[in-house]
Amino acid sequence: MDTAELTSSKTTKSKSFLVGALAVMPLTIAVIPWGILAGSFALEIGLTAVESQAMSAIIFAGSAQLVALGMIKAGIGIGSILITTLLITSRHLLYAMAMRSQISPLPLKWRLGLGFLLTDELFAISNQAHGGDTPAQHQFDRWYALGGGLTFYIGWNIATLLGIVAGQSIDNLGELGLDFAIAATFIAIVVPTVKKPSILVCVLVSLTLAVVCAVFAIQAGLLIAAISGMAAGMAYAKLTNEGVVVTDTPCADIAPTKEDTL
Q1: Same domain, 116 and 15
Q2: Which of 43, 103, 143, 241 could form a disulfide with 167 if both were Cys (CB 3.0 to 4.6 A apart)?
Q3: Does the model's pTM come out above 0.85?
Q4: How many CB atoms lie within 10 A of CB 81?
Q5: Residue 32 and residue 156: Cα distance in Å, rounded?
Q6: Is residue 80 part of a domain?
Q7: How many domains does the chain divide into?
Q8: Is residue 187 part of a domain?
Q9: Contacts from 168-175 at CB under 8 Å and sequence distance 24+?
């Protein structure tokens, strides 16, 4: 590779990294109150400032961190904490499976790095059609994903540090309503993905059942809402043949040729 090609390659990588960083920036800003809450709550239950920061730096899982901290405060055993956090973060297994075909060809260092940085936010931006006009034209860009994942990681840890500092100087920080950032972040992730009727049905059913289960204090409400929403969305898609291309041409059942797919 000559100097010109090397320079062009570095420019392309830097541009992709920057675009990924900018794409995740709104979600990073939205999660700042959540990070502040995590940092201050860690201090409240008795962790040191270093331990509180290390929790965000090593575990890097907002909802799991807050739940684990609450369980530690309640005096629950380590076994139950591990099982609970495993269930909470199990959705990342689904994310990894969905992205496996794109990431598996990458070198080990890339797979490990992107695996550690994989969050709801990174999954959301990495599966948007930034590489083409439609999702079908989207090509996974490792540098785009790295820019988004690393930016969000740094933002989360900075927010945690702010929470640690604030938690040492501001009393009752947890009563300021910062936990609303959790709901706001997931709303910001979900809303842009509602592009088909079946997804809308899934969201509405899940939302309705989650509220109903919360009102009646049903412990497994979140799980019931999630499974019911997915089932409803799939049922709607099958009943309406959503995504099936219908054509009136007599040759519709003929397999496309190579030229047709270009």
Answers
A1: yes
A2: 43
A3: no
A4: 18
A5: 7
A6: yes
A7: 2
A8: yes
A9: 168/43, 168/49, 170/40, 173/36, 173/37, 173/40, 174/37, 174/40, 174/41, 174/44
